[in-house]
Amino acid sequence: MPADLTGRLRRFWSPRPASDSTEERVGALPWDLATALPLPFVCQDEAGRGTLRELVTARVTQCALSRICAMCGQSLDAPPLVLLGTRREEGRNAFSVPPMHAGCADHAHAAYTGLDDPVLGHESGEEWVLVRTGGFDLERPHDREAGSRPLFVPNAILPAP
C-alpha cells in the first residue's frame, strides 16, 4: 500500500486529539432545546440528537472503550480524567457518566448545578461533584433487564488542583 494512502487511512481511523480550548470543544456541540445548554456527546444519538435528561447507552460504551470525553467526544489523551456524578455516586465510588476532560467537567458541573430538571439520567435536584482520577475501571451490568448501567470506578483519586 502506498505510504500516502497508509497515512491518510491512519488519520481516518485514529481518534481525534482534543482541541486545547474547552470553549471550542463545548461550543461545537449541538444544543439541548429544553435547557438551552450544550448537549453532551454521551447524550447524543448518531445523528447528534438527544436530550440532556438521558444518557445514550451506545455512547457510554463508546466513551469507555475508546477513551473519549463524555462531554465533547474527543480523545482523553492525558490525565487527569474527571468523573462528574452525584454525591451518592461519590460515596459508593462508582459513576454512571463516563470520564471527561477537566475543562469539560468544570463546564458541565457549572451548567448542571442548580438545574431543576433531571440531567444525565439522574433525578432532579441532585448535588453534582467532580472526582479527578488517573484512570478508571469499567464495571458492566450483569442484568440488562433491570435497567442497570455501566459504572466507572476511579482507580486512583487525584487531589484537586
Characterise this structure.
- The chain is of the alpha+beta class and 161 residues long.
- It has one domain (20-154).
- Helix content is 27%, strand content 15%.
- A two-stranded antiparallel sheet has the order 1-2.
- A hairpin with a 4-residue loop joins strand 1 (31-32) and strand 2.
- The N and C termini lie far apart (47 Å).
- The model is unreliable at 1-16 (pLDDT under 50).
Q: Please tell me the overall pLDDT.
A: 85
Secondary structure: helix percent: 25-40%
Query: What does the radius of gyration come to?
Result: 16 Å
First-to-last CA distance: 47 Å
Instruction: Kindly give the count of domains.
Output: 1
SSE series: HHEEHEHHEEE
**SS elements, strand count:** 6
Quick summary of this structure?
The protein is of the alpha+beta class and about 160 residues long. It is built from five helices and six strands, in the order H-H-E-E-H-E-H-H-E-E-E. Helix content is about 25%, strand content about 15%.
Characteristic key phrases:
161 residues, two-stranded antiparallel sheet, 5 helices, globular, disordered N terminus, alpha+beta, 27% helix
